[in-house]
Amino acid sequence: MTTEVNTAQVRSAVPPAVASGVNSSTRSNGAPLMISSVDGAYVTDSDGKRYLDYHAAFGAILLGHKAPQVDRAVIDAIHNEPDLTGWGTSRLETQLAESLVAALPSVEQVTTVTTGSEAVAYALRIARASTDRRLIIKIQGGFHGWSDSVARNVISAPDRVYQMDPLSAGILPEALEATLVAEWNDIESMRELFVRHPEQIAAVIVEPIPHNVGALLPEPGYLEQLRKLTLEHGTMLILDEVITGFRHALGGYQELSGVAADLTTFGKSLGNGYAVAGVGGSAAVMSAVDPAAGGKVAIMGTFNGNPVACAAGIATIDYLRSHPEFYTRTHALGSRARTGLQGVFDDAGVAASVQGFGGTFTTYFLPARATGYRDLLANDAAASRAFHRGMVERGFLMLPIPMKRMHISGAFTEADIDATVEAAADVVSQLVAQGQLPLR
Ligand SMILES: Cc1ncc(COP(=O)(O)O)c(C=O)c1O
Q1: In angstroms, what is the span from residue 418 Cα to ligand 1's centroid?
Q2: What is the CATH code of the structural domain delimited by 7-66+324-433?
Q3: How far apart, in Å, are the Cα atoms of 368 and each of 160, 351, 352, 383, 436?
Q4: Residue nearest to atom 4 of ligand 1 (CA)
Q5: Identical fold at 7-66+324-433 and 68-322?
Q6: CA distances, 95 to each of 84, 214, 242, 309 (Å)
Q7: Which phi and psi angles does 197 have, rounded to 5°?
């Protein structure tokens, strides 16, 4: 089995006019994969090979590819709504805002943008403007898009954890330094930063489940402690629900945990593949963007509230609201996958922990359950890559990046999950024979 990348072959398959070959850095994974068609739970590459799609466009696909309800709404908007006017507001923008407010428990007003990164950048601006403070806290392992303030310390190597670890060159150090880094599920590490920087922390931003390093579930009481700590210090709590929102529950993870945010960011699956995102909060918090209420935060974007994006968002929410069984189904499929895969690893004596929530799962090559980033330092990255590459070769699209989460869309079936577990057993037995997986 080939697990190593043939660099020359990959380079030759790269479209020469696309700088670096891909339009988003993490889309390049050593495989010259170009998807030419999609259908429900499946994608087909340009060689005609079909894959069960666990990648789901980094989680933007929730209902399945080309969900008919979303496609119909988009086509209807193209035919029957104004395209883009850049003047005032529109019927679909208003309707999307009302749907979001009805869905998200702590949200009374929203502003919609195009990407999750923009939503986060605006949330940080609102928090800084409203508190008149400079500093932000994120956690080691949290990812909140590409904007300068948060582009640090995601999958950090052991010698860079909690140190300055930028995601990119070209960012002003001042922007990065105004963001501090704490450990997930460790309230003391957060408290310490508040003690060191009294009355300077504008916001704490966390994914309610840090899915960008897999699935580190919040320990019981952790989110509540975070809420209490931020309230005590007059700091805004930003729940970045760009992945968890709509995927785990219509009202995001905040609906399930009961922990309310000051600001919520959302995106990805809201449009089921169409570009729509946003930020919301109470009317008082969101007044920061309303000049009539004295707000001084500017929100700008030529394509904000475009009809295609709004139609896709409205249709996705409508579908989820009218099909509550979507969640019971995807959560049950997720549980079936986690149990099945853990069984495969256990039977083979592999040191692996399959973790996840709802319709998501991640395999860590670790001897025990991970609760924080510190645990992830021991994850066997080479084993992760080898396992995912083996699955890709067998027709299961799993991004060969360590700690990547898998997404189960509404188009998956029990048979898809069972086929995954069966293929995993084959991959695992081969990799064990080759000594590529850590044993217990
Ligand atoms: C939690 C989270 N926030 C924000 C973003 C940025 O969203 P976008 O890629 O739409 O800019 C991402 C993207 O992966 C994300 O996972």
Answers
A1: 30
A2: 3.90.1150.10
A3: 23, 8, 7, 16, 19
A4: 144
A5: no
A6: 16, 34, 20, 12
A7: -130, 65
332-350 burial string, b = 16+ CB within 10 Å, else e? ebbbbbbebbbebbeebeb
CA distance 308 to 17: 28
Q: How far is the CA of 212 from the centre of ligand 1 (A)?
A: 9
pLDDT score recorded for residue 208: 98
Domain ranges of the chain: 7-66+324-433, 68-322
Distance 367 CA to ligand 1 centre (A): 30
Q: How far is the CA of 415 from the centre of ligand 1 (A)?
A: 31
pLDDT score, position 285:
98
Indicate the top mutation candidate among 136, 149, 168, 243 to test ligand 1's pocket, ranked by most ligand atoms within 8 A of CB. Answer: 243
**Residue 120 Cα, ligand 1 centroid: separation in angstroms?**
8
Residue in this structure with the two tokens 């789901």, named with its chain if needed: 56
The residue contributing the CA closest to ligand 1 atom 8 is 116
Amino acid at 401: I
Q: Domain spanning 68-322 has what CATH number?
A: 3.40.640.10
Instruction: Give ligand 1 pocket residues (Cβ under 6 A).
Output: 58, 115-117, 120, 143-145, 207, 212, 240, 242-243, 267, 277
* Among protein residues, the one whose CA lies closest to atom 2 of ligand 1: 144
How many A from CA of 364 to the centre of ligand 1?
22
In ligand 1, the atom with minimum distance to the C-alpha of 116 is 7
Mean pLDDT by 10 residues, the chain (440 residues): 39 69 77 86 95 98 98 98 94 98 97 98 98 98 97 96 96 97 98 98 98 98 98 98 98 98 98 98 98 96 96 98 98 98 98 98 97 97 97 95 96 98 98 98
Give the strand pairing for 135-139 and 201-206: parallel
Atom of ligand 1 nearest to the CA of 24: 9
C-alpha distances (whole Å) from 53 to each of 65, 315, 417 are: 9, 22, 11
DSSP assignment letter at 161:
T
